[in-house]
Design brief:
Strand order of the largest sheet: 3-2-6-1-7
Helix content: 25-40%
Bound molecules: S-adenosyl-L-homocysteine
Number of domains: 2
Order of helices and strands: EHEHEEEHEHEHEHEHEEHEH
Structural class: alpha/beta
Length: about 250
Amino acid sequence: MTGKVYLIGAGPGDPELLTLKAYRLLKQADVVLYDRLVGKEIIELIPESAEKMYVGKAKSLHSLPQEEINSLLAAKAKEGHMVVRLKGGDPFIFGRGGEELEELIEEGVPFEVVPGVTAAAGCAAYAGIPLTHRDYAQSVRFLTGHLKDGTTDLPWEELVHPAQTLVIYMGLTGLKDISQSLIRFGMSPSMPVAIVEKGTTSEQRVFTSTIQDVYGVSIENEAKSPALLIIGEVVTLQKKLEWYGKY
Ligand code: SAH
């Protein structure tokens, strides 16, 4: 009898941001495949009896190629197991969740998807930066700053738009290019920017600066991945609304 695969978002780090559904399914799992970005405390919730498999990837250091993860999921389910595929944040936001499901469909393996708190929501909340605000931003855009052939390839013109917040995932490596390009396409050099490092965890650090200075600030503070960039006027609220680790 074929088992089932649960593609589950684990949220950005704080284990209490797991959904009740994610928690319940994790506790029932026979096999758990997890990524690098899934928090340590969440891994500790996996039952002793379950087979734990780390398939995560650090940048350009893939411990298992995507195709192999896809087939492993299908194979484990076909052995009759209840398989949990745990991903950082939300599985459908820069998570390749779609690719894994396509393979399951081809293999005739049943599945369910459980959403998670994406890094944008988690980091914004724990940094004290509302992504929208009636006075500052009526829209928010999620982008990946992941480099293709060593350069970032983003629709710069559309990004320099009033009353819009930009949230850039995987933006640290390309930060110099990203900040220079935004200014070149007309963004004010004084546009506020926040870098949120290891958001929602006990090691969270938040650095606020401007698009002109953000690269220097990241170097000075040795900002490390995982880090999220939030760009927009809403970042000015951080000073006032910051709460995490404060009260
Ligand atoms: N599916 C995930 C995103 C995976 S892409 C989600 O929905 O959140 C990986 C990128 O997410 C990282 O490079 C970083 O930009 C961001 N990220 C994930 N967890 C984070 C965290 N705790 N703090 C800051 N950024 C994080």
